[in-house]
Every structure is written in C-alpha cells, then in structure tokens.
Design goal:
Largest sheet: 6 strands, mixed
Helix content: 25-40%
CATH class of one domain: Alpha Beta
Shape: globular
Strand content: 5-15%
CATH architecture of one domain: 2-Layer Sandwich
CATH topology of one domain: Nucleotidyltransferase, domain 5
C-alpha cells in the first residue's frame, strides 16, 4: 500500500552516532589513525593552555574539525560550524554528541591560532608519518620536491605604493659680513597672528553637512603602471608578494608552499611556506632535505628545471644528495655522470606525483586561495592540507 507523507515527532532517539556511519566508510580508518596521533600529541597540548579558567575547545576536536574542512571542501570556518550543527557524520568524526552545541565561529578561530603558536600542524604530520602502520610505507632513499603558489586573501586593488618619509633638509645658517650686516638671504619676516574675529554660533537646529558616499569596488586601470614588491605592498596582507609562476602567466598576490615527497607511495613528508620570490623554491628545498635527511645517508632528489642551477646542485652534493634535477637544454648543471643511470629516469617519472598533492590541496582542500592572512597562518593551513592529503591516501595504501 502507499505510504503516508506524515511526520510524527519523537521525543527520544536511541540510535548511536557510531551506528549511523557505514562500517566500510574511509573515515573510519582515518579517524583511527588521527586518534592514535592525537594520543601521542597530548604532551604537546598541555603547555598551550592555562591550568585554570574557563574550558576552551579541546585541541583534539579542533584538529579533527580542521581536517574535515579539508576533506569535504568546506570554504570557511563559519560554514564548518553550520555543517557540524546538522551533519551527523561530522559530529561523529569530531567527537560531538548528537545534543552537544557547536562552537561560535570566532571562538573556533581564536582557538585555532593557539595551535598555530605551538606549531601543532607540523608536529601532527611528523607523528602521523611515525605511526607504526604508516612508517613502513615510506621510502628513506628517494624523494622529490616542488613548490606551488597559494593565492593570498588580498585583491590587486590593495597593492598600493609604500609610504615614503620625505626628508626635510634645513638650509645652512647665514654668515655675517665684515661690516656686521647679515649676508645671504634676509631673515624671514616675523608673522603676526591674525586678529580674532567673532563667529556667530550655528543654531541648534542646523543640519550637519552631508558627505558624499564613497563608491566601493571602483574600476581601476593598471595598464602602464610600474608595480613591484620593492615599491608597493598590499594593505590587506603586507606579507603577500606579487609573483607569477611562469612566463605568460598573470602575476598574483600570493605565498609559496613547498613540499618534499617520498617516491615510493607519493606521501608528503615535509612542508615549508615562504614569501613568493625567485629563490624561495631552492632555499626551501635545502631546508626540507636537511630536516629530513641531514647528510647521514645518501639519497636522491628529483626536481623540475627550475632547480637546475649550479649553486643548488653543488649544495645538494655537499649534503650527500644525488641531484636528479631535470636538465635544461642549454647550460645544465648536471651532466651524463648523473643522467646516464636508470634511477635518474625513474626519479623524473616519479617526481610528477607531487602535483597530485598540490592538485588535491587546491581542488579538494583549502590551499587554492587562503582565507587567512600572514605567512604563519597560511603555513599552518598548508601543512594541515598536506597532512589531510596523506590521510586521504592511507586507507587504500593500508588495505593493499
């Protein structure tokens, strides 16, 4: 028979949130890994909070919620709180009960900044890679490195000339002549204050003068203007830099995110966020390699042609790193001694997988255009996006 479209109110619900999530859902394995990592980070959370006062958002729930924001492409933290209010799967993953109230978005943002002060995102990734199930998936000999642009939360109209202080030079004092008469220009005449004039007060019923309203989002023509980071800066985010990734592309206000990938399964093992300039990629690559493998054993590093410089290749060799750098057609810093080996061709093929992490972070995650300001906040978000990418890959890798 036909069912009736009527709804009867229920006073109680006896179904647990654990039963509403399918047993084969990928988030179940991800949540298990996240909980194991958060147990190891418990000692790192304690110094970030005061021993007395009002209880804040638990850092474990805060991190789980930020990971959900990257997994499901939630644009802002305000929308994340809205999803937590009615999405039962989100409540289950974060650890909220079905009747627990969600947090105020501004309070959530302030607590997120507390994690930033403790560099929790980088520590979370380190503990995830040190997990007993994940550690066996990593390669300790072959790596790849690359960088990507993260568009800043600032418009081109905010890129204004820097304020310059005009130096006022005083004229040298005049010299007196032999006859006692002053030389040079005559002294300036003394100013006498103008006589005071009585003003009639305005009547109390006089209306204030109406000021014209400023037009928002006016049209601006930038053609023909010379604009550079040396003379201009963004008023919205002063740390953002005007930069373009390649020839023929438009310049944007952005930051630069860098990642070091192991070549066995394509997992990200190190991240770095810098200001955007032409030397940032090579400097960040050396810093990440030094943190991961400080010259203790010989490793290989695959890169694209942007890293093919004599200084960078020489620095890698001093760090006991074989530079599997994509060679330029003319003036390459690597020669046949490196490119003749079969491992060089394998590294050049494997290194392209790092674009999968960047693509995931920009299409699924929140790394395409950040809504945060400042290199520190952007770096926290970028590292957490790369950790979320690793977590998204791990269920299939662990099941294989």
């Amino acid at each position: 028979m036909r069912g009736l479209d009527t709804r009867t109110g229920e006073l109680f619900s006896y179904v647990d949130l654990e039963a509403r999530v399918p047993s084969n859902h990928p988030l179940r394995k991800i949540r298990q890994l996240v909980n194991d990592v958060l147990v190891n980070l418990d000692a790192e959370f304690t110094p970030l909070y005061s021993p007395f006062g009002r209880e804040s958002i638990p850092p474990e729930r805060l991190l789980r919620a930020l990971l959900l924001q990257a997994f499901f492409t939630v644009r802002s933290e305000r929308q994340l709180m809205e999803q937590l209010d009615y999405n039962l799967m989100f409540r289950w993953f974060v650890g909220l009960g079905i009747d627990d109230p969600v947090w105020v978005p501004t309070v959530f943002s302030k607590n997120r900044d507390r994690l930033l002060e403790g560099d929790v995102a980088a520590k979370f990734m380190q503990q995830l890679l040190a997990h007993k199930d994940v550690r066996a998936l990593l390669s300790d000999e072959h790596f790849s490195v690359d960088g990507t642009l993260i568009e800043a939360w600032a418009s081109m109209k905010s890129f204004q000339p820097r304020p310059t202080a005009t130096a006022v030079q005083e004229a040298p004092p005049d010299k007196a002549g032999k006859d006692g008469t002053p030389g040079g220009d005559p002294p300036p005449p003394t100013r006498t204050p103008p006589p005071k004039t009585e003003t009639t007060p305005k009547p109390a019923t006089a209306k204030p003068e109406e000021q014209p309203m400023k037009e928002r989002n006016v049209e601006v023509d930038f053609h023909g203007q010379k604009r550079s980071n040396a003379t201009h800066a963004s008023t919205s985010d002063p740390e953002a830099r005007l930069y373009k990734k390649g020839k023929g592309k438009e310049a944007k206000l952005c930051f630069m995110g860098h990642a070091l990938m192991e070549n066995r399964n394509g997992l990200i093992v190190e991240t770095e966020t810098t200001l955007a300039d032409g030397f940032a990629e090579r400097k960040a690559a050396l810093a990440m390699v030094h943190r991961r493998c400080p010259g203790e054993r010989k490793i290989t590093l695959g890169t694209d042609k942007g890293y093919d410089t004599s200084d960078f290749v020489a620095d890698l060799r001093t760090m006991n790193v074989t530079p599997h750098v994509a060679s330029k057609v003319v003036g390459s810093a690597v020669d046949g001694r490196t490119t003749r080996h079969a491992g060089y061709a394998i590294s050049q093929k494997r290194r392209k997988r790092i674009e999968e992490a960047f693509g995931w972070g920009k299409t699924i995650g929140t790394a395409a255009k950040t809504m945060l300001r400042g290199a520190a906040r952007v770096g926290f978000q970028f590292t957490l996006n790369m950790a979320a990418y690793n977590l998204a890959c791990l269920p299939k890798l662990l099941a294989a």
